[in-house]
Amino acid sequence: MFKKIVLTTDAHHAKIYSIKGLKITSLIKEFSAPSRQIWNNNTSRDNFYHKASTQSHFLDPRTKIKEALENDFATQISKELKLLCHRLPYDALIVFAEPKLMGKLRKHVNRQHIKVKIFWKSQNLCHQNEHEIEKHLLNLNHHKN
Fold first, then answer.
1. Helices 62-87 and 99-108: crossing angle, nearest 10°?
2. % residues pLDDT > 90 (the chain)
3. Which segments of the chain have a pLDDT < 70?
4. Which Pfam families did the record assign (predicted)?
5. Do residues 82 and 114 touch, judged by C-beta distance below 8 A?
6. pLDDT digits over 106-128, tens only?
7. How is the chain classified by DSSP, letter by letter?
8. Are the C-beta atoms of 24 and 6 separated by less than 8 Å?
């Protein structure tokens, strides 16, 4: 039987599980994005002027910082997958991630280092329990056939 792992992630947390068939056997690793304070609440919002004709997030300087933090976390996840591939060889990787992070992960996962079949599913299951994730694995298996 093939060795498979499941990655569930959102922009702040990631969990990697080992599965056998469609059952989760163990939690291999759990990690979070480094907590960095994006905005200091004690300061005024200097250089931030909201005009009525533009959306507030368009001019908000926090958006670029948040994007950079998400890119850093996607890079961290890809490094963890590379290390895991060398430590615990696996044949398939199933990724459940929110759509925005999935795009960043696809850019950062290096196919030369991780030579396995990857199944991408756009769902945020990071805060679900193992039983709920197994239900989604079963649904994913039915859709492949």
1. 60
2. 16
3. 1-2, 36-62, 110-114, 141-145
4. Host_attach
5. yes
6. 888 866 566 788 888 888 888 88
7. ---EEEEEE-SSEEEEEEEETTEEEEEEEEEEPPP-----TTS--TT----TTS-HHHH-THHHHHHHHHHHHHHHHHHHHHHHHHHS--SEEEEEE-HHHHHHHHHHS-TTT--SEEEEEE---TTS-HHHHHHHHHHHHHHH-
8. yes
pLDDT digits (tens, 9 = 90+) for 85-94: 888 888 888 9
Q: Which residues of 51-88 are buried (b: 16+ CB within 10 A; e: fewer)?
A: eeeeeeeeeeeeeeeeeebbeebbebbbebbeebbeee
d(CA 77, CA 16): 10
Domains of the chain by start residue, with CATH? 4-34+60-144 (3.30.420.60)
Structure confidence at residue 1 (pLDDT): 44
Instruction: Kindly list the distances between the CA atom of residue 35 and the CA atoms of 12, 13, 140, in Å, as whole numbers in the listed order.
Output: 9, 11, 33
